User: What shape does this take?
Amino acid sequence: MALIKFASYFFGFANVFLGILSLISEKKLFFRGFEIGPMTSIGFICLGVTFFWNAHSLKDKTLDDINYGTVYKCPNCGKVTDWYTTVEVQKCSKCNVEIEELKGFYERHPDFEDKE
Assistant: This one.
């Protein structure tokens, strides 16, 4: 993850630098035979800002933080949710109740087995 973040910051800096350099340069800059005009410069700057934003929004999470392979169940409605949809939100999407891990769920809620 750190390598992806570094690459995003690097390409962001490179694009912003190229965009600003081409805007303030008195000489015409060319890339593969095409002139880099003001609109292309602004495009490079926007692309660089997008890379910066992407690098800043990346979170340093590991598989231990994500609880890979864990299944959750709502004690209210019984909806089963996999680990991927519960990375950020730990509440049921139906009834907005805090969900619990499925492992040991029926031991904690013995009356829930009778409902199904």
